Amino acid sequence: MLARPETNFCVECRRRYGDPGFWYYHGRIEDGPAYFCDEGILCSPACSMKQIERRRAAGTYPHAPARDPFEP
Length: 72
Hints:
By secondary structure, the protein is of the alpha+beta class. The chain has one helix at about 45-60; strands at about 35, 40. The chain has a two-stranded antiparallel sheet with strand order 1-2. β1 (about 35) and β2 (about 40) form a beta hairpin. It is globular, with a radius of gyration of 13 Å.
């Protein structure tokens, strides 16, 4: 059987959701990621800042908040 593609990873550093070092809302994995954007989830404040700087430089910074990727 083929493995399905991993979709829950940091869009900046590619760290998988659930790996050590991933930041969660209120510190609990059940509450979802602490950081996310319209492109996907982010693993830490450092990756969040890198993503903001990269998007500002590219002119693709969003003008509205992103919806929570783990909300149904």
